[in-house]
Automatic annotation (TrEMBL):
Pfam families: WD40
Annotated protein name in UniProt: Quino protein amine dehydrogenase
Cellular compartments per GO CC: microtubule organizing center; MWP complex
One GO BP annotation of this record: microtubule anchoring at mitotic spindle pole body
Superkingdom of this protein's organism: Eukaryota
């Protein structure tokens, strides 16, 4: 689905490229039209009919993740904002700001409401997963698909560029994969899935494949379908794999489109804490990554988070592996297995987090022979890892409730921990998001339930600090530059 999701709270939302922001204050919908620019003055307020906000989401830029400074006017004018309450959906055009469409009398209890294949479609997942409805804002027509199994993004997805729609259905006791034409949503193909309980699907970024993975209790099972819904391969584990000890699949992740124009890898995260790396030419396992660290002559650089003796700030210290891995994180619950897999922009590096030691980020080099090149050990469980869209830079947040900071990793220098000047979160739910990429742009948003801060990390003489460019706050919504527009 063409969405960005909410921001750090239900009342603040950022567009995926970071070029727009919106927040709610009662019945006031406050839209920041240029928060990433130096002016940061174009703020407008519109009135909505209900104070309850269920969903607040931006459409994606039609030109992809690139800076709006390079976008043509027609692309900027197509950007839209979705505001959904329990009773209606409002679609706002951003440039110029005006109400574009309204969907009234929607069924109560919608599980998810989002943009569809682009800004001209709205998709609604109804209560109890009875059906999903796609509204075409250009024609006013709608299509209905019955019995979607899930209402989240792993349950369905659009093919890149051509926008065919794939969805897992559960009409009875069996899982069903269906592929639909763009716009008309006419059925292209349907496949009865040989699964016990399918957990989700993901299109490959190059649009060539659809991967579906089964529940962990069924053991390792990943189904690879062609774009038109033909079963191509069933992956059940590497050669010589002993299925009697198979704990199954926790999740999957495709590598980005490489210079060759295709996705090279499919990472299969297992409940036992390993990751199978499949090459997409044959979908056979080329290597298995293990989160059980073994010391050898070519040990990677291991960094452990600790409080500095001088000022009490957090810092990384490089330590021997035996010392660095002696620390144990706070319990993060009963979940097991690989919870995070994130590829760098070119697919050469993979960052992983295993729930057994959820405080460690592992960084693997897959370019030739898969090898662990670095690991960062933290005091608290890792919440988020995100790679820069075109550079080898990694940002990390953890569930540290007392310290608002981002961890910054690059292969060219030691990692650093940078304090962010923002409100402390009692839940430790700090979120970070890179701004859309342009020439030499390394700005990012850092968010708490009260604030979003835009800035960048500056490193001079081995001293790192966060340079604040702009702030969006729930405490003073709209700032001092508001210009009112009412509906």
């Amino acid at each position: 689905m063409d969405s960005t999701g909410a921001g750090v709270s239900a009342s603040i939302s950022l567009s995926e490229d970071g070029e727009y922001a919106a927040q709610m204050s009662g019945k006031d919908l406050i839209i920041h039209l240029n928060p990433a620019t130096s002016e940061f003055q174009d703020v407008q307020i519109v009135k909505v009919k209900e104070s309850s906000t269920r969903f607040l989401k931006f459409s994606r830029a039609s030109h992809g993740l690139q800076s709006s400074a390079y976008a043509v006017e027609g692309e900027r004018s197509s950007r839209r904002l979705l505001h959904a309450s329990d009773a209606r959906v409002l679609i706002w055009q951003l440039n110029p700001l005006q109400l574009h469409a309204e969907i009234e009398s929607i069924e109560p209890g919608a599980l998810n409401i989002d943009f569809g294949s682009d800004e001209n479609e709205v998709i609604i997942f109804h209560a109890w997963n009875t059906k999903l409805t796609i509204y075409n804002l250009e024609t006013g027509r709608c299509q209905v698909i019955k019995s979607p199994k899930f209402a989240h993004t792993n349950g369905c997805g659009y093919r890149s560029k051509t926008k065919q729609f794939a969805v897992i259905l559960k009409p009875d006791t069996s899982d069903l994969l269906t592929i639909h034409e763009p716009r008309s949503y006419e059925l292209i193909n349907r496949a009865l899935l040989p699964t016990v309980d399918a957990q989700g699907l993901k299109w490959s970024p190059d649009g060539r494949w659809i991967a579906v993975w089964d529940t962990a209790s069924a053991g390792t099972k990943v189904l690879i379908f062609t774009a038109d819904g033909q079963l191509f391969r069933t992956y059940t584990g590497p050669p010589g794999f002993d299925s009697s000890f198979d704990l199954g699949v926790r999740g999957i992740e495709w590598s980005p489109v490489a210079n060759s124009g295709v996705s090279d890898y499919l990472a299969v995260g297992k409940v036992d804490g390993s990751v199978d790396i499949l090459r997409c030419k044959t979908f056979s396992c080329s290597t298995t990554l293990s989160h059980a660290f073994h010391t050898n002559d070519n040990s990677p650089s291991i960094w452990r988070e600790q409080y500095a003796a001088t000022d009490g700030d957090l810092e990384y210290a490089e330590l021997p592996s035996t010392s660095a891995f002696s620390i144990t994180a706070e319990s993060s619950g009963p979940l097991r297995g690989v919870s995070t897999m994130a590829f760098s922009f070119n697919g050469n590096l993979l960052a992983t987090v295993d729930q057994t030691r959820s405080n460690i980020v592992w960084i693997w080099d897959l370019e030739s022979t898969a090898v662990l090149i670095s690991a960062m050990v933290h005091e608290h469980p890792v919440r988020q890892v995100t790679w820069h869209p075109s550079k080898t830079l990694l940002l990390i947040t953890t569930a540290n409730i007392a310290f608002a900071a981002v961890r910054y990793w690059t292969p060219l220098s030691p990692p650093c921990i940078v304090r962010i000047p923002t409100s402390r979160s009692d839940s430790g739910r700090y979120d970070v998001r890179w701004l859309s990429d342009s020439a030499d742009d390394s700005r990012f948003w850092f968010g708490t339930p009260e604030d979003y801060v835009l800035g960048y990390v500056e490193i001079e003489s081995d001293i790192s600090q966060f340079k604040t460019l702009n702030t969006i706050s729930n405490k003073t919504p709209g700032g001092s530059h508001n210009t009112g527009v009412s509906r």
